[in-house]
Design goal:
By secondary structure, the protein is of the alpha/beta class. It has two domains: 410 residues, 3-Layer(aba) Sandwich (Rossmann fold), CATH 3.40.50; 104 residues, 2-Layer Sandwich (GMP Synthetase, Chain A, domain 3). The chain contains 16 helices and 25 strands. The strands form five sheets. It has a nine-stranded mixed sheet, sandwiched between helices. Strand 12, helix 11 and strand 13 form a beta-alpha-beta unit. The longest helix has 17 residues. The radius of gyration is 24 Å and the shape is globular. The chain starts with 13 loop residues before the first helix and ends in a 10-residue tail after the last helix. The structure holds adenosine-5'-diphosphate (ADP). The site of adenosine-5'-diphosphate (ADP) has 23 residues, from strand 14, strand 19 and strand 20.
Protein backbone atom coordinates (compact mmCIF):
# COMPACT_ATOMS: atom_id res chain seq x y z
CA UNK A 1 0.00 0.00 0.00
CA UNK A 2 1.23 3.48 -0.78
CA UNK A 3 2.35 5.49 2.23
CA UNK A 4 0.19 8.46 3.27
CA UNK A 5 1.61 11.94 3.44
CA UNK A 6 1.60 13.68 6.77
CA UNK A 7 -0.08 16.91 5.79
CA UNK A 8 -3.19 18.57 7.17
CA UNK A 9 -6.39 17.57 5.50
CA UNK A 10 -7.95 21.05 5.53
CA UNK A 11 -11.15 20.98 3.49
CA UNK A 12 -11.34 23.28 0.48
CA UNK A 13 -14.23 25.56 1.43
CA UNK A 14 -15.65 28.81 0.08
CA UNK A 15 -15.89 29.72 3.78
CA UNK A 16 -12.07 29.76 3.88
CA UNK A 17 -11.91 32.21 0.97
CA UNK A 18 -14.26 34.51 2.88
CA UNK A 19 -12.43 34.20 6.20
CA UNK A 20 -9.03 34.66 4.59
CA UNK A 21 -10.15 37.72 2.62
CA UNK A 22 -11.77 39.30 5.66
CA UNK A 23 -8.64 38.86 7.77
CA UNK A 24 -6.02 39.74 5.16
CA UNK A 25 -7.69 42.20 2.81
CA UNK A 26 -10.16 43.91 5.17
CA UNK A 27 -9.76 47.31 3.50
CA UNK A 28 -9.97 46.17 -0.14
CA UNK A 29 -12.91 47.79 -1.88
CA UNK A 30 -16.10 46.55 -3.49
CA UNK A 31 -17.89 49.09 -5.69
CA UNK A 32 -21.35 48.30 -6.91
CA UNK A 33 -24.10 49.80 -9.05
CA UNK A 34 -27.65 49.18 -7.79
CA UNK A 35 -31.00 50.72 -8.55
CA UNK A 36 -31.06 52.40 -5.13
CA UNK A 37 -27.45 53.63 -5.22
CA UNK A 38 -25.59 54.51 -8.44
CA UNK A 39 -22.21 53.86 -6.81
CA UNK A 40 -22.28 51.88 -3.58
CA UNK A 41 -18.88 51.51 -1.99
CA UNK A 42 -17.65 49.49 0.97
CA UNK A 43 -14.78 47.32 2.18
CA UNK A 44 -14.33 43.55 2.23
CA UNK A 45 -14.62 43.72 6.06
CA UNK A 46 -18.00 45.43 5.84
CA UNK A 47 -19.16 43.05 3.10
CA UNK A 48 -18.32 39.93 5.07
CA UNK A 49 -19.83 41.38 8.28
CA UNK A 50 -23.07 41.71 6.34
CA UNK A 51 -22.65 38.15 5.06
CA UNK A 52 -22.76 37.05 8.73
CA UNK A 53 -25.88 39.13 9.30
CA UNK A 54 -27.56 37.60 6.24
CA UNK A 55 -26.69 34.06 7.30
CA UNK A 56 -28.32 34.76 10.70
CA UNK A 57 -31.37 36.22 8.99
CA UNK A 58 -31.74 33.14 6.78
CA UNK A 59 -31.46 30.87 9.81
CA UNK A 60 -34.23 32.92 11.47
CA UNK A 61 -36.40 32.34 8.40
CA UNK A 62 -36.12 28.62 9.13
CA UNK A 63 -33.96 27.38 6.26
CA UNK A 64 -32.52 23.87 6.48
CA UNK A 65 -29.16 22.46 5.40
CA UNK A 66 -29.05 21.89 1.63
CA UNK A 67 -32.05 24.14 0.91
CA UNK A 68 -31.84 25.81 -2.48
CA UNK A 69 -32.05 29.59 -2.30
CA UNK A 70 -32.75 31.18 -5.66
CA UNK A 71 -31.51 34.55 -6.90
CA UNK A 72 -32.83 36.67 -9.75
CA UNK A 73 -30.33 39.47 -9.61
CA UNK A 74 -27.66 41.53 -11.38
CA UNK A 75 -24.02 41.83 -10.43
CA UNK A 76 -24.07 43.85 -7.23
CA UNK A 77 -22.84 43.79 -3.63
CA UNK A 78 -26.01 42.19 -2.23
CA UNK A 79 -25.78 39.35 -4.75
CA UNK A 80 -22.18 38.82 -3.63
CA UNK A 81 -23.33 38.70 0.03
CA UNK A 82 -25.97 36.10 -0.91
CA UNK A 83 -23.31 33.97 -2.68
CA UNK A 84 -21.29 33.67 0.53
CA UNK A 85 -24.07 33.70 3.15
CA UNK A 86 -25.84 30.77 1.48
CA UNK A 87 -22.94 28.51 0.45
CA UNK A 88 -20.98 29.01 3.66
CA UNK A 89 -23.99 28.28 5.88
CA UNK A 90 -24.67 24.94 4.08
CA UNK A 91 -27.38 26.33 1.79
CA UNK A 92 -27.17 26.24 -2.00
CA UNK A 93 -26.99 29.45 -3.96
CA UNK A 94 -29.11 28.91 -7.05
CA UNK A 95 -28.52 31.70 -9.56
CA UNK A 96 -31.33 32.05 -12.11
CA UNK A 97 -31.09 33.79 -15.46
CA UNK A 98 -33.81 36.48 -15.37
CA UNK A 99 -33.67 36.87 -19.14
CA UNK A 100 -35.23 33.47 -19.73
CA UNK A 101 -38.87 33.23 -20.68
CA UNK A 102 -41.33 33.00 -17.80
CA UNK A 103 -42.23 29.33 -18.24
CA UNK A 104 -38.54 28.37 -18.19
CA UNK A 105 -37.93 30.36 -15.01
CA UNK A 106 -40.94 28.63 -13.50
CA UNK A 107 -39.60 25.21 -14.57
CA UNK A 108 -36.15 25.92 -13.15
CA UNK A 109 -37.44 27.18 -9.78
CA UNK A 110 -39.71 24.13 -9.41
CA UNK A 111 -37.07 21.65 -10.61
CA UNK A 112 -34.54 23.05 -8.12
CA UNK A 113 -37.24 23.19 -5.42
CA UNK A 114 -36.11 26.64 -4.38
CA UNK A 115 -37.31 27.57 -0.87
CA UNK A 116 -36.67 31.31 -0.88
CA UNK A 117 -35.99 33.74 -3.69
CA UNK A 118 -33.83 36.83 -3.54
CA UNK A 119 -34.99 39.22 -6.22
CA UNK A 120 -33.82 42.52 -7.61
CA UNK A 121 -36.63 45.14 -7.35
CA UNK A 122 -36.68 45.19 -11.17
CA UNK A 123 -37.95 41.59 -11.22
CA UNK A 124 -40.83 42.01 -8.74
CA UNK A 125 -43.46 42.25 -11.53
CA UNK A 126 -42.08 39.06 -13.12
CA UNK A 127 -42.33 37.15 -9.84
CA UNK A 128 -45.82 38.48 -9.16
CA UNK A 129 -46.90 36.79 -12.39
CA UNK A 130 -45.17 33.52 -11.45
CA UNK A 131 -45.96 33.41 -7.72
CA UNK A 132 -48.92 31.01 -7.98
CA UNK A 133 -47.00 28.59 -10.17
CA UNK A 134 -44.08 28.17 -7.76
CA UNK A 135 -45.85 26.87 -4.64
CA UNK A 136 -42.65 25.46 -3.10
CA UNK A 137 -41.24 28.94 -2.60
CA UNK A 138 -41.94 30.08 0.99
CA UNK A 139 -41.21 33.74 0.39
CA UNK A 140 -39.32 36.49 -1.36
CA UNK A 141 -36.59 38.90 -0.30
CA UNK A 142 -36.38 42.08 -2.36
CA UNK A 143 -32.78 43.27 -2.70
CA UNK A 144 -33.16 46.90 -1.65
CA UNK A 145 -33.72 49.19 1.34
CA UNK A 146 -37.01 50.27 2.93
CA UNK A 147 -37.05 53.60 1.05
CA UNK A 148 -36.93 51.84 -2.34
CA UNK A 149 -39.16 48.90 -1.48
CA UNK A 150 -41.80 48.48 -4.19
CA UNK A 151 -45.48 47.94 -3.41
CA UNK A 152 -46.14 44.26 -3.95
CA UNK A 153 -48.69 41.57 -3.30
CA UNK A 154 -46.03 38.81 -3.17
CA UNK A 155 -46.54 36.40 -0.25
CA UNK A 156 -44.16 36.46 2.66
CA UNK A 157 -42.11 39.30 1.28
CA UNK A 158 -39.15 40.93 3.04
CA UNK A 159 -36.96 43.94 2.38
CA UNK A 160 -33.28 42.84 2.29
CA UNK A 161 -31.87 45.71 4.37
CA UNK A 162 -34.64 45.48 6.98
CA UNK A 163 -34.26 41.72 7.18
CA UNK A 164 -30.57 41.84 8.08
CA UNK A 165 -30.46 45.16 10.01
CA UNK A 166 -30.75 43.86 13.56
CA UNK A 167 -28.83 40.62 13.05
CA UNK A 168 -25.45 39.87 14.58
CA UNK A 169 -22.40 39.91 12.30
CA UNK A 170 -21.14 36.78 14.06
CA UNK A 171 -22.24 33.51 12.56
CA UNK A 172 -21.10 30.08 13.56
CA UNK A 173 -19.93 28.88 10.13
CA UNK A 174 -20.35 25.10 9.93
CA UNK A 175 -17.34 22.83 9.30
CA UNK A 176 -18.55 21.47 5.98
CA UNK A 177 -17.24 18.57 3.98
CA UNK A 178 -15.40 19.98 0.97
CA UNK A 179 -17.67 17.99 -1.34
CA UNK A 180 -20.77 19.70 0.05
CA UNK A 181 -22.87 21.39 -2.63
CA UNK A 182 -22.38 25.15 -2.78
CA UNK A 183 -24.21 26.52 -5.77
CA UNK A 184 -26.44 25.60 -8.64
CA UNK A 185 -26.73 26.94 -12.17
CA UNK A 186 -29.01 25.63 -14.93
CA UNK A 187 -27.82 25.23 -18.46
CA UNK A 188 -30.08 25.03 -21.46
CA UNK A 189 -27.24 23.94 -23.67
CA UNK A 190 -28.97 20.79 -24.92
CA UNK A 191 -32.20 19.79 -26.54
CA UNK A 192 -34.28 18.81 -23.50
CA UNK A 193 -35.31 20.86 -20.46
CA UNK A 194 -32.64 22.96 -18.70
CA UNK A 195 -30.40 20.91 -16.42
CA UNK A 196 -28.88 21.89 -13.10
CA UNK A 197 -25.11 21.88 -12.63
CA UNK A 198 -24.37 21.54 -8.92
CA UNK A 199 -21.00 22.99 -7.91
CA UNK A 200 -19.26 21.97 -4.69
CA UNK A 201 -17.05 23.91 -2.27
CA UNK A 202 -14.09 21.86 -3.47
CA UNK A 203 -14.74 22.38 -7.19
CA UNK A 204 -15.23 26.10 -6.62
CA UNK A 205 -12.03 26.57 -4.63
CA UNK A 206 -9.94 24.57 -7.13
CA UNK A 207 -11.47 26.52 -10.02
CA UNK A 208 -10.69 29.79 -8.24
CA UNK A 209 -7.02 28.84 -7.82
CA UNK A 210 -6.79 27.82 -11.48
CA UNK A 211 -8.60 30.91 -12.75
CA UNK A 212 -6.23 33.23 -10.87
CA UNK A 213 -3.08 31.74 -12.48
CA UNK A 214 -0.95 34.08 -14.63
CA UNK A 215 -1.75 32.32 -17.90
CA UNK A 216 -5.45 32.27 -17.01
CA UNK A 217 -7.26 35.35 -15.66
CA UNK A 218 -4.03 36.49 -13.99
CA UNK A 219 -5.72 38.21 -11.05
CA UNK A 220 -3.52 39.93 -8.49
CA UNK A 221 -4.00 42.09 -5.42
CA UNK A 222 -2.96 45.03 -7.62
CA UNK A 223 -5.92 44.58 -9.94
CA UNK A 224 -9.32 46.20 -10.09
CA UNK A 225 -11.65 43.64 -11.63
CA UNK A 226 -14.95 44.28 -13.39
CA UNK A 227 -16.92 41.11 -14.15
CA UNK A 228 -19.30 42.07 -16.97
CA UNK A 229 -20.36 38.47 -17.29
CA UNK A 230 -23.49 38.07 -15.15
CA UNK A 231 -23.38 36.50 -11.70
CA UNK A 232 -26.36 34.39 -12.84
CA UNK A 233 -24.21 32.94 -15.61
CA UNK A 234 -21.75 30.32 -14.28
CA UNK A 235 -20.95 32.41 -11.20
CA UNK A 236 -19.59 35.28 -13.30
CA UNK A 237 -16.83 32.89 -14.43
CA UNK A 238 -15.79 32.37 -10.81
CA UNK A 239 -14.57 35.95 -10.33
CA UNK A 240 -16.64 36.49 -7.15
CA UNK A 241 -14.36 33.83 -5.61
CA UNK A 242 -11.02 34.40 -7.38
CA UNK A 243 -11.02 38.13 -6.68
CA UNK A 244 -11.51 37.88 -2.88
CA UNK A 245 -9.01 34.99 -2.88
CA UNK A 246 -6.26 37.38 -4.00
CA UNK A 247 -7.64 40.59 -2.44
CA UNK A 248 -8.20 42.65 -5.59
CA UNK A 249 -10.71 45.50 -5.83
CA UNK A 250 -14.06 44.34 -7.23
CA UNK A 251 -16.37 46.50 -9.34
CA UNK A 252 -19.90 45.23 -9.99
CA UNK A 253 -21.90 46.89 -12.79
CA UNK A 254 -25.44 46.07 -11.60
CA UNK A 255 -28.12 46.43 -14.28
CA UNK A 256 -25.70 48.44 -16.48
CA UNK A 257 -24.13 45.32 -17.99
CA UNK A 258 -25.21 45.89 -21.59
CA UNK A 259 -24.66 49.66 -21.57
CA UNK A 260 -21.36 50.39 -23.37
CA UNK A 261 -21.13 54.01 -22.17
CA UNK A 262 -21.82 53.09 -18.53
CA UNK A 263 -19.26 50.27 -18.64
CA UNK A 264 -16.69 52.68 -20.11
CA UNK A 265 -17.36 55.22 -17.35
CA UNK A 266 -17.06 52.56 -14.65
CA UNK A 267 -13.74 51.37 -16.07
CA UNK A 268 -12.35 54.90 -16.21
CA UNK A 269 -13.87 56.06 -12.91
CA UNK A 270 -12.77 53.08 -10.84
CA UNK A 271 -9.45 52.39 -12.56
CA UNK A 272 -10.44 48.93 -13.76
CA UNK A 273 -7.43 46.91 -14.95
CA UNK A 274 -9.09 43.59 -15.82
CA UNK A 275 -12.51 42.75 -17.16
CA UNK A 276 -14.31 39.73 -18.57
CA UNK A 277 -17.42 39.14 -20.64
CA UNK A 278 -19.06 37.83 -23.81
CA UNK A 279 -18.30 39.42 -27.21
CA UNK A 280 -21.56 41.41 -27.44
CA UNK A 281 -20.84 43.66 -24.44
CA UNK A 282 -17.45 44.60 -25.83
CA UNK A 283 -18.95 45.63 -29.16
CA UNK A 284 -21.22 48.03 -27.25
CA UNK A 285 -18.23 49.45 -25.36
CA UNK A 286 -16.02 49.78 -28.44
CA UNK A 287 -18.73 51.50 -30.45
CA UNK A 288 -19.21 54.01 -27.62
CA UNK A 289 -15.46 54.69 -27.52
CA UNK A 290 -15.51 55.24 -31.25
CA UNK A 291 -18.39 57.72 -30.95
CA UNK A 292 -17.04 59.70 -28.01
CA UNK A 293 -13.29 59.42 -28.57
CA UNK A 294 -12.94 58.33 -24.93
CA UNK A 295 -10.00 56.16 -23.85
CA UNK A 296 -9.52 53.48 -21.20
CA UNK A 297 -6.08 54.22 -19.78
CA UNK A 298 -6.30 51.92 -16.76
CA UNK A 299 -7.56 48.85 -18.61
CA UNK A 300 -4.82 46.29 -19.28
CA UNK A 301 -6.65 43.07 -20.12
CA UNK A 302 -10.01 41.80 -21.23
CA UNK A 303 -11.05 38.15 -21.25
CA UNK A 304 -13.57 37.32 -23.96
CA UNK A 305 -15.42 34.03 -24.04
CA UNK A 306 -18.76 32.31 -23.98
CA UNK A 307 -19.30 32.68 -27.73
CA UNK A 308 -17.35 33.00 -30.94
CA UNK A 309 -15.57 36.35 -31.15
CA UNK A 310 -14.25 37.91 -34.37
CA UNK A 311 -10.57 38.88 -34.15
CA UNK A 312 -11.56 42.37 -35.35
CA UNK A 313 -12.77 43.04 -31.80
CA UNK A 314 -9.50 41.86 -30.32
CA UNK A 315 -7.57 44.04 -32.77
CA UNK A 316 -9.66 47.09 -31.92
CA UNK A 317 -8.96 46.59 -28.22
CA UNK A 318 -5.28 46.29 -29.01
CA UNK A 319 -5.44 49.76 -30.61
CA UNK A 320 -6.64 50.99 -27.22
CA UNK A 321 -3.62 49.36 -25.60
CA UNK A 322 -5.74 46.54 -24.13
CA UNK A 323 -4.61 42.93 -24.35
CA UNK A 324 -7.41 40.50 -25.20
CA UNK A 325 -7.40 36.82 -24.33
CA UNK A 326 -9.94 34.43 -25.77
CA UNK A 327 -11.35 31.80 -23.40
CA UNK A 328 -13.63 28.80 -23.65
CA UNK A 329 -15.81 27.09 -21.11
CA UNK A 330 -19.27 25.86 -20.23
CA UNK A 331 -21.67 25.98 -17.30
CA UNK A 332 -20.64 22.34 -16.81
CA UNK A 333 -16.97 23.33 -16.46
CA UNK A 334 -17.40 26.06 -13.78
CA UNK A 335 -16.68 27.46 -16.54
CA UNK A 336 -12.94 27.74 -17.18
CA UNK A 337 -11.57 25.17 -19.63
CA UNK A 338 -9.10 26.94 -21.88
CA UNK A 339 -7.62 30.39 -22.28
CA UNK A 340 -5.43 31.67 -25.05
CA UNK A 341 -2.00 33.03 -24.22
CA UNK A 342 0.86 32.46 -26.63
CA UNK A 343 3.80 30.23 -25.77
CA UNK A 344 7.38 31.54 -25.60
CA UNK A 345 8.85 31.97 -29.06
CA UNK A 346 5.48 32.63 -30.69
CA UNK A 347 6.06 36.36 -30.42
CA UNK A 348 8.59 35.87 -33.23
CA UNK A 349 5.86 34.75 -35.63
CA UNK A 350 4.49 37.26 -38.13
CA UNK A 351 1.62 39.37 -36.86
CA UNK A 352 -0.89 37.54 -39.04
CA UNK A 353 0.34 34.15 -37.83
CA UNK A 354 -0.02 35.34 -34.24
CA UNK A 355 -3.60 36.44 -34.93
CA UNK A 356 -4.35 33.04 -36.44
CA UNK A 357 -3.20 31.44 -33.18
CA UNK A 358 -4.98 33.96 -31.00
CA UNK A 359 -8.26 33.22 -32.79
CA UNK A 360 -8.16 29.74 -31.23
CA UNK A 361 -10.01 29.16 -27.95
CA UNK A 362 -6.76 28.39 -26.17
CA UNK A 363 -4.83 25.94 -24.07
CA UNK A 364 -6.27 23.99 -21.11
CA UNK A 365 -5.28 24.95 -17.59
CA UNK A 366 -3.86 22.25 -15.28
CA UNK A 367 -6.85 20.36 -13.90
CA UNK A 368 -8.57 20.14 -17.25
CA UNK A 369 -7.98 17.14 -19.51
CA UNK A 370 -9.33 17.35 -23.03
CA UNK A 371 -9.41 15.21 -26.13
CA UNK A 372 -11.16 15.04 -29.47
CA UNK A 373 -12.75 11.81 -30.69
CA UNK A 374 -14.39 10.45 -33.83
CA UNK A 375 -17.88 8.92 -34.05
CA UNK A 376 -16.52 5.63 -32.64
CA UNK A 377 -15.00 7.40 -29.64
CA UNK A 378 -11.44 6.88 -30.92
CA UNK A 379 -9.10 9.68 -29.95
CA UNK A 380 -8.02 11.83 -32.89
CA UNK A 381 -4.50 13.22 -33.39
CA UNK A 382 -3.51 16.60 -31.98
CA UNK A 383 -2.33 17.89 -35.31
CA UNK A 384 -4.46 21.02 -35.60
CA UNK A 385 -6.23 19.48 -38.59
CA UNK A 386 -8.30 16.52 -37.44
CA UNK A 387 -11.56 17.68 -35.89
CA UNK A 388 -13.90 15.74 -33.68
CA UNK A 389 -16.21 15.81 -30.71
CA UNK A 390 -14.55 17.64 -27.80
CA UNK A 391 -14.51 15.74 -24.49
CA UNK A 392 -13.31 17.01 -21.17
CA UNK A 393 -12.82 15.97 -17.54
CA UNK A 394 -11.43 17.33 -14.33
CA UNK A 395 -12.23 18.25 -10.71
CA UNK A 396 -14.36 21.29 -11.64
CA UNK A 397 -16.25 19.57 -14.47
CA UNK A 398 -19.76 18.34 -13.63
CA UNK A 399 -20.13 14.57 -13.23
CA UNK A 400 -23.93 14.51 -13.41
CA UNK A 401 -27.02 16.74 -13.39
CA UNK A 402 -29.04 17.69 -10.32
CA UNK A 403 -32.18 15.62 -9.87
CA UNK A 404 -31.38 13.43 -12.88
CA UNK A 405 -28.41 11.53 -11.47
CA UNK A 406 -27.45 8.50 -13.53
CA UNK A 407 -29.33 9.71 -16.60
CA UNK A 408 -26.86 12.06 -18.24
CA UNK A 409 -26.75 11.74 -22.00
CA UNK A 410 -23.70 13.99 -22.18
CA UNK A 411 -21.29 11.76 -20.23
CA UNK A 412 -19.65 8.67 -21.72
CA UNK A 413 -19.05 5.44 -19.80
CA UNK A 414 -15.53 6.52 -18.88
CA UNK A 415 -16.87 9.64 -17.23
CA UNK A 416 -15.79 12.16 -19.85
CA UNK A 417 -18.19 15.03 -20.53
CA UNK A 418 -19.14 15.40 -24.20
CA UNK A 419 -19.15 19.15 -24.65
CA UNK A 420 -21.28 19.23 -27.79
CA UNK A 421 -18.53 21.28 -29.40
CA UNK A 422 -16.45 20.11 -32.35
CA UNK A 423 -12.81 21.11 -32.22
CA UNK A 424 -9.24 20.67 -33.35
CA UNK A 425 -6.26 20.51 -30.99
CA UNK A 426 -2.85 21.50 -32.37
CA UNK A 427 0.54 20.07 -31.32
CA UNK A 428 1.03 23.05 -28.95
CA UNK A 429 -2.24 22.15 -27.22
CA UNK A 430 -4.31 25.03 -28.61
CA UNK A 431 -7.94 23.99 -28.98
CA UNK A 432 -10.10 25.55 -31.66
CA UNK A 433 -13.87 25.19 -31.93
CA UNK A 434 -14.91 24.47 -35.50
CA UNK A 435 -18.57 23.54 -35.08
CA UNK A 436 -21.20 22.50 -32.60
CA UNK A 437 -23.25 19.32 -32.44
CA UNK A 438 -25.69 20.52 -29.77
CA UNK A 439 -28.69 22.03 -31.40
CA UNK A 440 -28.76 25.53 -29.96
CA UNK A 441 -28.17 29.13 -30.92
CA UNK A 442 -25.97 31.39 -28.87
CA UNK A 443 -27.02 35.01 -29.12
CA UNK A 444 -25.12 37.61 -27.13
CA UNK A 445 -23.72 34.82 -24.96
CA UNK A 446 -27.17 33.44 -24.09
CA UNK A 447 -28.85 30.28 -25.32
CA UNK A 448 -31.85 30.12 -27.59
CA UNK A 449 -33.36 26.65 -28.01
CA UNK A 450 -33.85 25.73 -31.66
CA UNK A 451 -36.08 22.82 -30.65
CA UNK A 452 -38.50 25.06 -28.78
CA UNK A 453 -38.75 27.47 -31.73
CA UNK A 454 -39.28 24.55 -34.11
CA UNK A 455 -41.98 22.96 -31.94
CA UNK A 456 -43.86 26.24 -31.84
CA UNK A 457 -43.52 26.74 -35.61
CA UNK A 458 -44.89 23.32 -36.52
CA UNK A 459 -47.87 23.96 -34.26
CA UNK A 460 -48.97 26.55 -36.85
CA UNK A 461 -51.67 24.98 -39.04
CA UNK A 462 -49.97 26.08 -42.29
CA UNK A 463 -46.55 24.67 -41.39
CA UNK A 464 -45.56 21.18 -42.51
CA UNK A 465 -42.01 21.19 -41.20
CA UNK A 466 -39.63 23.70 -39.64
CA UNK A 467 -35.98 23.90 -38.68
CA UNK A 468 -34.16 26.63 -36.80
CA UNK A 469 -30.45 27.14 -37.27
CA UNK A 470 -27.92 29.70 -36.14
CA UNK A 471 -27.06 32.34 -38.74
CA UNK A 472 -24.06 34.58 -38.32
CA UNK A 473 -24.78 38.04 -36.90
CA UNK A 474 -22.17 40.80 -36.51
CA UNK A 475 -23.48 42.06 -33.16
CA UNK A 476 -24.97 38.97 -31.46
CA UNK A 477 -22.55 36.34 -32.95
CA UNK A 478 -25.55 34.19 -33.86
CA UNK A 479 -29.25 34.75 -34.40
CA UNK A 480 -32.01 32.23 -35.14
CA UNK A 481 -33.03 31.68 -38.76
CA UNK A 482 -36.31 29.83 -39.28
CA UNK A 483 -36.55 27.58 -42.33
CA UNK A 484 -40.12 26.51 -43.10
CA UNK A 485 -41.86 24.06 -45.42
CA UNK A 486 -45.50 25.07 -45.88
CA UNK A 487 -48.40 22.61 -46.08
CA UNK A 488 -49.41 22.05 -49.69
CA UNK A 489 -51.88 24.62 -50.87
CA UNK A 490 -51.70 26.75 -47.71
CA UNK A 491 -50.78 30.42 -47.57
CA UNK A 492 -48.42 31.76 -44.93
CA UNK A 493 -46.57 35.06 -45.00
CA UNK A 494 -43.31 36.06 -43.34
CA UNK A 495 -45.21 38.39 -40.99
CA UNK A 496 -47.82 35.77 -40.10
CA UNK A 497 -45.12 33.26 -39.26
CA UNK A 498 -43.24 35.60 -36.95
CA UNK A 499 -46.30 37.06 -35.22
CA UNK A 500 -47.25 33.45 -34.38
CA UNK A 501 -44.52 33.62 -31.71
CA UNK A 502 -46.07 36.67 -29.97
CA UNK A 503 -46.44 35.98 -26.26
CA UNK A 504 -45.06 32.45 -26.60
CA UNK A 505 -41.35 33.20 -26.25
CA UNK A 506 -39.05 35.89 -24.87
CA UNK A 507 -38.84 38.73 -27.42
CA UNK A 508 -35.11 38.24 -27.99
CA UNK A 509 -35.75 34.63 -29.05
CA UNK A 510 -37.77 35.73 -32.10
CA UNK A 511 -36.09 34.46 -35.31
CA UNK A 512 -34.47 37.28 -37.30
CA UNK A 513 -35.75 35.88 -40.57
CA UNK A 514 -37.97 33.23 -42.12
CA UNK A 515 -37.04 31.40 -45.30
CA UNK A 516 -39.66 29.28 -47.07
CA UNK A 517 -38.28 26.21 -48.85
CA UNK A 518 -39.80 23.26 -50.70
CA UNK A 519 -38.08 20.67 -48.58
CA UNK A 520 -35.51 20.16 -45.81
CA UNK A 521 -32.57 17.74 -45.99
CA UNK A 522 -33.22 14.55 -43.98
CA UNK A 523 -31.22 11.69 -42.47
CA UNK A 524 -32.15 8.06 -43.13
CA UNK A 525 -34.22 8.05 -39.94
CA UNK A 526 -36.14 11.12 -41.08
CA UNK A 527 -34.48 13.70 -38.81
CA UNK A 528 -33.56 17.08 -40.28
CA UNK A 529 -29.90 17.11 -41.26
CA UNK A 530 -28.88 20.24 -39.38
CA UNK A 531 -25.26 20.02 -40.47
CA UNK A 532 -26.28 20.11 -44.12
CA UNK A 533 -28.82 22.86 -43.54
CA UNK A 534 -26.25 24.98 -41.72
CA UNK A 535 -23.87 24.41 -44.61
CA UNK A 536 -26.58 25.51 -47.05
CA UNK A 537 -27.08 28.80 -45.15
CA UNK A 538 -23.41 29.29 -44.30
CA UNK A 539 -23.15 32.67 -46.04
CA UNK A 540 -26.71 33.78 -45.39
CA UNK A 541 -26.96 37.49 -44.62
CA UNK A 542 -29.73 38.24 -42.13
CA UNK A 543 -31.88 41.33 -42.76
CA UNK A 544 -30.94 42.45 -39.22
CA UNK A 545 -27.20 42.37 -39.96
CA UNK A 546 -26.49 45.96 -40.86
P1 LIG B 1 -20.52 29.97 -21.04
O1 LIG B 1 -21.42 30.86 -21.82
O2 LIG B 1 -20.15 30.49 -19.72
O3 LIG B 1 -19.32 29.56 -21.82
P2 LIG B 1 -22.53 27.91 -21.46
O4 LIG B 1 -22.65 26.59 -20.81
O5 LIG B 1 -23.72 28.80 -21.49
O6 LIG B 1 -21.34 28.60 -20.71
O7 LIG B 1 -22.03 27.75 -22.96
C1 LIG B 1 -20.96 26.92 -23.31
C2 LIG B 1 -20.83 26.82 -24.80
O8 LIG B 1 -20.64 28.11 -25.37
C3 LIG B 1 -19.65 26.03 -25.27
O9 LIG B 1 -19.89 24.65 -25.24
C4 LIG B 1 -19.47 26.57 -26.69
O10 LIG B 1 -20.40 26.00 -27.59
C5 LIG B 1 -19.81 28.02 -26.52
N1 LIG B 1 -18.58 28.79 -26.27
C6 LIG B 1 -18.04 29.13 -25.08
N2 LIG B 1 -16.89 29.82 -25.25
C7 LIG B 1 -16.69 29.93 -26.56
C8 LIG B 1 -15.67 30.51 -27.37
N3 LIG B 1 -14.64 31.17 -26.86
N4 LIG B 1 -15.80 30.39 -28.72
C9 LIG B 1 -16.84 29.74 -29.28
N5 LIG B 1 -17.83 29.17 -28.57
C10 LIG B 1 -17.76 29.25 -27.23
Amino acid sequence: MAMNGLMMNSPLLITSIMQFAKKNYATAEIVSVTKDNPLHRYSYAEAFDRVGQLANALARLGVKQGDRIGTLAWNDHRHLEIYYATSCSSLICHTINPRLFENQIEYIINDAEDRWLFIDPLFVPLLEKLADKIPGVHGFIVMTDEAHMPETGLRNVYCYETLIASESEQFDWPALDENAASSLCYTSGTTSNPKGVMYSHRSTVLHSYAAALPDMFNVSINDTVLPVVPMFHVNAWGLPYSVPMVGAKLVLPGPKMGDGAAIGDLIAGEGVTLSAGVPTVWMALLSDLQKTGKRLPSLKRVIIGGAACPTSIMREFQQHGVMVNYAWGMTETSPLGTLNTLKPGMEKLSEEEQWKLRAKQGRPVFGIEMKIVDDDNHELPRDGKAFGSLKIRGPWVCADYFGHEGHSDTHDEDGWLCTGDVATIDPDGFMQITDRTKDVIKSGGEWISSIELENLAVAHPAVAEAAVIAAHHPKWSERPLLVVVKNAGQELTWEEMLSWYDGKIAKWWLPDDVVFVDELPHTATGKVKKVELRQQFKDYVLPTAE
